[in-house]
Design goal:
mainly alpha, 13 helices, about 500 residues, 3-stranded mixed beta sheet
Length: about 500
């Protein structure tokens, strides 16, 4: 009944709809900083009309900053004192701006306005960037930027940029906190200064972090540029070196075929080409094996196997000596570095004339030396392991301490060959001729002597117990003594016993 009476009385007054709704929803009227008041005259009229119902009372409770000091109830029977209301208005001169609801609505409105402006701007910028990218504008700007960096004015531009950034930072530290605190109302000067100072500290921390991150970025960029520059320099150096190697390779190949006006070999020029190729093979991993193949081809073409001269023995003064160019090639091949060689490739020196070659400690392992002529050659400590030596001629060759393990010497001729201390493990001497060969100190374990000829071969002191396919007939033809150890199925010839 009371609420109906109040609304009926207020309907004829100047009180606005919002105030009537507020009064209708409560049995007490709250006056404070959080309440939006109508005009003073409307409130006085409303409470004057409301006071005619003297059997009821209206409680007025003060809220806001004065809640602690003025939290009490007032019993009104006629009307609220205009002086009291005027005092409240004096303490809160702008109650409309202090309403939380209105503040929230204003903030939402501002957010919507900002969003409504930023989203179209971002879309416009994105569309512009896409169009610029389609038309190549960014590429042109990037080229201009790179050209500027390479110019003499770049240092001045960088310096001006840092000065401008420093000034902007100072302005932001000076004015930014003031702009940030300016919208806060009712602050004392000291409180305002403290707030500005706190905001300035926060802004300085943010700017310091930005500077630190920027410095880190430029440091990383400089390191990256230095690495890229070094990589480019290395590639350029590599290209230059490859070009030099190609030129040297071409020139050396030309030197290998040098002849004079009469058609004779110009040995000094050819030797220079041979040693130049050897040097390139050491320096260039890519060209190593092609150079090896070129040198092997040179030997096969320029030193093919020839029949032995009649009536001359290897080592005699009139016996043909090896050609200097062929000797130079074999020397280079024998001391080559095999680190970068393909595991399945072999030197091919088949059917070559290597008589009286000096191949001390030469590495010819796994080489193809089929039908090669090593008559009178010096192969001291040479490595011929796994080599293909079928039909090769080692007559009078010096193979002292040479490595012939696993070599295939089928039908090879080793008459009067010196095999002193040689490694013959697993060598294949099938159908080989070993007349007058010297085996003292050698290791023929698991060597195959099937159908080999050992006429007067010196087997003194060697261990033949693990040799394969030895026959009593072969032992009878050879020479030895009681220190020679034979397989269990063979016995020592009487001529060996003293």
């Amino acid at each position: 009944m009371l609420r109906h009476t109040v609304l009926t009385r207020l309907a004829g007054s100047d009180c606005d709809v919002f105030t009537r709704a507020r009064i209708a929803g409560h049995t007490s009227i709250t006056i404070g900083q959080g309440y939006v008041h109508p005009q003073a005259a409307a409130v006085e009229t409303a409470f004057a009309a409301f006071g005619e119902t003297q059997s009821k009372s209206v409680n007025v409770r003060l809220l806001g900053a004065q809640a602690t000091a003025e939290n009490h109830q007032l019993s009104l029977t006629h009307a609220v004192s205009p002086a009291y209301y005027s005092g409240r208005m004096a303490r809160n001169p702008d109650p409309e701006n202090s309403s939380p609801a209105i503040g929230r609505m204003a903030r939402r409105k501002r957010i919507l306005m900002w969003a409504g402006g930023i989203v179209p701007l971002a879309a416009f910028l994105a569309a512009g960037a896409w169009l610029a990218h389609r038309q190549g504008a960014f590429s042109a700007l990037w080229r201009e930027w790179l050209t500027l960096q390479q110019g003499s004015a770049w240092d001045g531009v960088v310096a001006c940029g840092f000065v401008a950034l420093g000034l902007l930072g100072l302005i932001a530290l000076w004015k930014g906190p003031q702009w940030q605190v300016a919208h806060v109302k009712g602050l004392e000067p000291k409180d305002r200064f403290d707030r500005e100072n706190e905001a300035r500290k926060t802004l300085a921390t943010i700017l310091g972090g930005i500077v630190l991150l920027t410095g880190g970025f430029f440091t990383w960029r400089n390191i990256k540029l230095a690495q890229d520059s070094q990589s480019i320099s290395q590639r350029a150096l590599s290209v230059a070196q490859e070009g030099q190697i190609t030129d040297r390779f071409t020139k050396a190949i030309e030197q290998l075929g040098a002849i004079d006006a009469t058609g004779k070999k110009k040995l000094e020029v050819r030797l220079g080409g041979i040693y130049a190729l050897e040097r390139i093979a050491v320096e260039s991993e890519r060209d190593h094996w092609p150079i090896v193949e070129v040198l092997c081809t040179y030997v096969r073409e320029n030193a093919p196997r020839k029949p032995h001269p009649r009536g001359l023995l290897p080592g005699s003064p009139d016996y043909p000596h090896p050609e200097p160019d062929a000797q130079a090639v074999l020397t280079a091949l024998g001391r080559r570095d095999r680190t970068h060689e393909p595991s399945d490739d072999r030197l091919n020196l088949a059917h070559t004339n290597l008589t009286q070659m000096r191949l001390r400690m030469a590495d010819l392992s796994r080489a193809i030396l089929v039908d090669a002529d090593f008559t009178g050659a010096l192969l001291y400590k040479a490595n011929l392991s796994g080599a293909l030596l079928n039909d090769a001629d080692f007559t009078g060759a010096n193979l002292t301490e040479a490595n012939l393990s696993g070599a295939n010497l089928t039908r090879a001729t080793l008459n009067s060959a010196r095999l002193l201390g040689a490694n013959l493990r697993g060598a294949n001497f099938s159908y080989a001729t070993l007349d007058y060969a010297l085996f003292k100190g050698s290791d023929p374990s698991e060597a195959n002597f099937s159908d080999a000829t050992l006429d007067q071969a010196d087997l003194t002191g060697i261990d033949l117990r693990e040799a394969k396919n030895l026959t009593q007939e072969q032992i009878e033809e050879a020479s030895g003594d009681e220190s020679t150890k034979l397989p269990t199925d063979l016995h020592m010839p009487k001529s060996w016993k003293k």
